[in-house]
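Quarterly update from the structural biology core.
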Amino acid sequence: MKTKKYPRSEEPQKCTKCGKVKPAKAFYTADRHLTGLSGECRKCRKRRCRGRKFPRTKEPHRCFICCVTKPADEFLTNSSHLNGLQSACISCNNSRKSLRSGEPQRCPGCGEVKSAEEFHTNAARQSGLQRLCILCHKKRSHPRLTSPQRCTTCGEVKLAEAFHTARQSITGLSGKCKACYSRLNFPRSKEPQSCTKCGEVKPAEAFHTAKDCKTGLRASCAECCKASKRLLNYGLTKKVHSQMLKEQDNKCAICSNPFTASPHVDHCHTTGEVRGLLCSTCNTGLGCFKDDPAILANAIKYLEAADA
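Predicted structure, tokenized:
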């Protein structure tokens, strides 16, 4: 049985958390409510969800799209979920990014059914379209106010010039003042740290810099960051990558020189199939020759003729 969807009201509403009466723009859309608005305002919702970051689990997880239980390495991180993983696996996420629907769609902002040409593209959604139409997106770009505002971090009321611009905010100003933003530039720690993905305690040199973190280091180590990028871009797990390194004897597949840095994953740009692991020089060389065997054969003939 389909649930009834109510249009978004433009009347002011009382927030169930802070008890203040605010305009409709201060509430998120909830088409299951009679007013089409959420019960709590945006500020109360952000204040309630702030700081809820769950660690990434290592247990297998069931994808809600393909309904297959897969290892945690095949899911991206989502710290707002209890298990720290996204609901859909990486392969299902990539398959959803292919098609932009040409069917009409209902905008939850204005409540009108409009053609696909009136929506921006959003590859993460199944329809390939944004939820809000282009006109409603423009309405959400709020102008910058000139009235004083209270900083959400230090709690002081400051002039509008002390805040950065944030068009998605109702006031057009960011929640934190410029001074509080500048304090987030934490120095890089030299103490060992535990990686949130592999769970190993590693020295500070094994982590990338993140100035917005208290330790000045990223939560996951550099090896895990590279592994997650390989999994996202090429579908290579840690086991498959290590197996390819063993098969190539930790050497480049073209020049046969041992790897002195992290190897590059060479893949076909038309099919996306992984071909092997190369050093930086050979991988760049193939790209300069456009992966064309005919051009490479002409280059060999040219060098042989020059040496003769």
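The chain has eight helices and 18 strands.
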